[in-house]
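hey so u asked for the seq, here:
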Amino acid sequence: MKSTRRVFGSVLAAAALAACAPSTSPAAASIAAPAASGSEGARGAAPAAVASGKTAWTGQFRGYGTDQWKHAWGAADQGTWGGSDLSAVDDAAAPGGGSALQVVYGAGSSSNQCADCPNPGGGQFYTDLTSLGLSALAQGKTLDLKYSLKFPAGRDWGKAGKLPGLYGGRIGEESGGNHGAGWSTRYMWRGAKGVPDNGEVYLYTPTNSGPTGYGVDEGLGDWRFQADGAWHSVEQLVDRGTGDVTVWYDGRQVYAARGVASGIGGIPFGGVFFSTFYGGHDTSWGPASTQRAYFADFSLSSGVQH
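ran it, structure tokens below
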């Protein structure tokens, strides 16, 4: 269910345009401009992008799973699962130097909480900004996460699934109906109105997590994830002070909303919530055959990066 507080920003402020010019790559040019939301007039203009800032952290995948890699990512011990379905691969086309993380999703798989799934699929881990020596970033007003992802052509999207985003507060209190001093802004792909690859922000906050506590669909269908065997970038900026959330796909703004991430002002940024799987929590969400996705070149900044 879309929040009534969602607003889509079809026009950036002039200062934001200067800092966030859309990518001129063929991939970016292929993304159609989204339609303006009918709710924009009632809610006012979309939140202006925070001025571009210096990238504070980058994460690649060579040596994935080693102690050295865990240290470089500030990988937390809590909340990790699915390591057997995650592996480092070489891809000369991958942004950030040619290393990527391959994720395997078994046929009929869902989250690790699925009791009747015939196969495992996907995986999850958290980074911790404090462990990375980035306490100032954790306590900051805004945080921007950018990364690249690739879906092979012909992907079976199943019913829906999760993709990495940001989180804040205590691990284990930011998703899945377990809420306290935590929040998260993962993405989802979700089938709706005959389209299997709609993008959205799947939002959990202490005060905005839907009637069941299992999340709010924000911006459903405002963009589509491309399954074309090419690399695409996705970027989100979260403002703890205002609750504003903004998303860019291949450098083009596709979603912007004021105040939807309510109740997070006093909860510090935790870092990257790397979480990807089909689901949901039962086998009905999963693909009919084994699927793969690829991730590369994660980065964090206090301001917009593209």
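The first strand starts at residue 55 and ends at 59. Residues 1-44 have pLDDT under 50 and may be disordered.
lmk if thats what u needed
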